[in-house]
Write a structure and sequence with these properties.
- By secondary structure, this protein is of the alpha+beta class.
- It has a domain of 52 residues.
- It has one helix and five strands, in the order βββαββ.
- Strands 3-2-1-4-5 form a five-stranded mixed sheet, with helices on one face.
- A hairpin with a 7-residue loop joins β2 and β3.
Length: 78
């Protein structure tokens, strides 16, 4: 079974990191959150998963889905 692994943008000691769910190691580390979000979105488009963006305190700020959702929510932000 192929398990979906969403990509999270999380705070990191060296800036911001992209991490897949259930994986300890960061996929990439950047200086700014915007850079990390851009990288996560590129990867999510390729892998058809969701990007979950966190604030510095770890709470979820936003999310975007790039998967094959048969009933997608109406996205009023983009």
């Amino acid at each position: 079974m192929n398990k979906k692994r969403d990509i999270h943008v999380v705070p990191h000691a060296d800036g911001w990191a992209t991490k897949k769910e259930s994986v300890q190691r960061a996929g990439s580390v950047t200086h700014t959150q915007k850079e990390a979000i851009d990288r996560a979105r590129e990867q999510a488009r390729r892998e058809h998963v969701e990007v979950v963006i966190h604030r510095k305190d770890g709470t979820i700020r936003d999310s975007d889905s790039y998967g094959n959702d048969p009933r997608p929510p109406v996205d009023r932000k983009h």
